[in-house]
Design a protein that fits this description.
Blueprint lengths: L1 H6 L4 E11 L14 E7 L2 E4 L6 E2 L5 E2 L4 E4 L4 E6 L4 E4 L4 E12 L4 E19 L5 E6 L2 E6 L26 E8 L4 E6 L4 E6 L5 E4 L3 E6 L2 E2 L3 E2 L2 H7 L11 H5 L3 H38 L15 E15 L2 E6 L7 E6 L4 E4 L6 E7 L2 E7 L4 E7 L13 E10 L3
Antiparallel strand pairs: 1-10, 1-11, 2-5, 2-7, 3-4, 3-6, 6-9, 7-8, 8-10, 9-10, 10-13, 11-12, 12-15, 13-14, 14-17, 15-16, 17-18, 17-19, 20-21, 20-27, 21-22, 22-23, 24-25, 25-26, 26-27
Length: about 425
């Protein structure tokens, strides 16, 4: 039986822990679990896969019950509003379903809970959980993600315990998480949009990492990678699925139905807080990095990036860096989003092209939290791209990173 379950196409299982109470040896009182979801919004091609029935075109206000599913086509989207006021947005080329809950027991604390299982078999889903939810568990055959809503009685830096006053108490703070699962490559990517106790581990719990809002981690073939900082500002500008969660998007929220507005507004309090908190973190490591990259020092205690060069009279433009595919990337300036810079970077060879220019010297490298690449022309003019918050790893495909593009004159070394 176990082998049969794991052989099903690399599924991403999202389990929402919904209702918890103290157990007596005989009986537990339980809150109402998820029982239904309404198809709140449909864009283009969405199919409704009802259990034991022929798939059909989904219609607005269709109701899904456990074991039903939706399937989205190219450039399509489905939004589901659950009876606990959770809102789940399913992006294009995805299959999403939910199944009946099971009752689990955590001993010796004698805690019982209902668990409703969500399955994202392939694709992308954004999960917006209102206050009162307990948490979310995401599983693939080789990985496990626990998105545990933080309780105010917990220390912000502590690991959740099985105490009735921590993990299994209904949370006051809402949460937002985006999960992408590539079944073909057995690759899961988790993006935290809110702060809280969000932990990711392998099935054997050999490695566990925690995420804050604005941080992401990949699980590839059961191996949990390093936590990386992604640019929340860039994410909100480029990800339609997150509509209504960013600053200045109150007008988008106002276009939703009142019940959905309530959920989004609750979650917005935490997405905006996470954005402010990330800005403080980024200011902390970019200030020291820019000092090194532009004027910098060298030495065993403060090594220079291989791709970083001293620059005289630097002209710095902040923006968002994306690695699109393979060695290709783009940089989108904040002050002119139409002036996209094309980049080709090979971290293995340590080379970079910026807007097709290789110059007489080019180099790229990784160090500390950041990445850098520089192109120097024969006249000494330099163009340098800096990417913040990659934690010493190559920037991943499709993830927005805060960065800068600097031009000037390379200083003699």
């Amino acid at each position: 039986m176990g082998n049969k379950v794991l052989s099903v196409t690399q599924k991403l299982v999202v389990s929402s822990l919904l209702a918890v109470s103290w157990m007596t040896p005989v009986l537990a009182t339980q809150d109402q679990p998820l029982t239904r979801a309404e198809l709140y919004k449909l864009i283009k091609t969405v199919e409704l896969l009802l259990q034991n029935k022929t798939p059909r075109k989904a219609e607005l206000n269709d109701v899904m019950v456990p074991r039903d599913a939706v399937k989205t086509g190219v450039s399509s989207e489905a939004q589901l509003f659950f009876n606990d006021k959770s809102l789940i947005r399913v992006d294009q080329r995805s299959i999403f379903r939910f199944e009946p809950g099971v009752r689990r027991f955590q001993l010796p604390n004698r805690i019982a809970l209902n668990e409703m299982i969500f399955k994202l078999e392939n694709g992308t889903a954004l999960i917006l959980s209102p206050p009162g939810s307990v948490g979310t568990e995401v599983e693939t055959p080789e990985s496990k993600v626990s998105i545990l809503a933080i309780n105010p009685l917990n220390s912000p830096n502590s690991t959740p315990s099985l105490s009735p006053t921590s993990l299994f108490s209904p949370a006051i703070k809402p949460s937002a998480v985006m999960v992408i699962h590539d079944a073909q490559n057995n690759h899961t990517q988790v993006f935290a949009l809110t702060d809280g106790d969000i932990t990711i581990s392998d099935q054997q719990d050999k490695k566990t990492v925690a995420l804050k809002g604005g941080q992401t981690v990949a699980v590839r073939n059961g191996l949990v990678g390093k936590v990386q900082e992604f640019d929340l500002q860039g994410f909100y500008k480029s990800t339609n699925l997150s509509s209504g969660l960013a600053p200045g998007q109150e007008n988008l929220v106002a276009q939703e139905a009142p019940k959905v507005q309530e959920t989004i507004n609750a979650v917005r309090t935490q997405t905006l807080a996470a954005l402010r908190n990330q800005t403080k973190r980024i200011q902390g490591f970019t200030s020291s990095f820019l000092s090194d990259a532009l004027g910098g020092t060298e030495g065993d205690l403060n090594p220079r990036f291989r791709g970083s060069v001293r620059i005289s009279n630097p002209q710095v433009t902040r923006g968002t860096f994306y690695r699109t595919e393979g060695n290709n990337a783009i940089f989108i300036p904040e002050n002119n989003r139409n002036d996209v810079k094309q980049i080709t970077v090979d971290f293995d060879k340590g080379t970079v092209d910026i807007d097709g220019n290789r110059g007489v010297s080019n180099q790229a490298g990784l160090s500390g939290n950041n990445a850098s690449g520089s192109v120097i022309n024969s006249n000494g003019q330099i163009t340098q791209i800096d990417v913040f918050g990659v934690n010493g790893e190559e920037p991943q495909n499709g993830i927005p990173y805060s960065g800068s593009l600097t031009t000037g004159v390379a200083r003699d070394r």
